[in-house]
Amino acid sequence: MICDRYDMLETSARLLRLLALLQARRDWNGRQLAYELGVTTRTIRKDVQRLRALGYPVNAAPGVAGGYQLGAGTALPPLLLDDEEAVAVAVGLRTAGASGGISGIEETSARALAKLEQVLPAHLHRRVTALHDSTTAIGPGGPPVDASVLTAISAAVRDRLRLRFSHGRDDRCTAEPHRLIHTRGHWYLVAWNIERDDWRTFRVDRMTLSSHTGPRFARRPDPDGNLVSYVERELGQAMWRHRARVKVFASAARVIGRVPPAVVVEAIDESSCYANVGSDSAHELALWLGLIDADFEAGDDRELAKELRGLAARYTRAAKSVQSFCR
Known about the structure:
- It is a single chain.
- The protein has about 325 residues and is an alpha+beta fold.
- It has 11 helices and 13 strands.
- A 5-stranded antiparallel β-sheet has the order 8-7-6-5-9. The chain has a 4-stranded antiparallel β-sheet with strand order 11-12-10-13. It has a two-stranded antiparallel sheet with strand order 1-2.
- Helix 1 packs across helix 3, helix 2 packs across helix 3 (about 40-55) and helix 4 runs antiparallel to helix 5.
- The longest helix has 25 residues, at about 300-325.
- Mean pLDDT is about 80; it is low at about 1-5.
């Protein structure tokens, strides 16, 4: 009887180790698993059957290139997490809905976190608590997005299905969803607008999705070859109230290194370029242009030229006061 109990405990421990291996890597063959667990390939086959009986969908393929793979089933089986994974999941659950700007998941996150913290070892619980107590989450600063909307858009991005939706006061749009972006407290969808035949960035909290998706589409390369730069430029330019195109007497490479991604720089020659810049006002733009640290011309922008003359006079007065004081 004692031997039977020992064998049962040994088998249970081995099943947990086998499950951890299958979750840690996508593909294993029988010999690899047998070596890791110190058993025969026959035992591995039996243990795989035991895992299947417990609800874990372990796929098996015969042959030299075959092996075992943990698949997706009809229900979520228990997961085995290492220490770092458990801490990451706990922290993510605590901040869900606060900094991510997603509504409707606060209660679900709290339930999942309670289950996880109940079984966390003491040393991991202290790490999670210390991190939580020493940080402050700042809200997104914008309206939250319903989790079901993000899920629907994510599925359309994954399956490459066209979306139909209205956006703010605009007419209904049809677009090929490319990627979801979370930045500056808001969720954005980068998509190819069918009506405009061009890329566009949509605020997700202003989108009302249609209940039907469109046909499949072929995935396009990232806009401008760099998705992050494209989004930064689009969002930066969208916030500008005063725009200008100035000629800067410095190389394009030097100017690009000193301006944010939203500024489009056009090379003229090795020592000059055009910079398409903007800010909240002509006054702020005049202040900001000085940070490029190069000579420039305001072109035909009279409002900007007026602000530059006012700043020049102010700086001149400041310099004169220093000279008189030194005398």
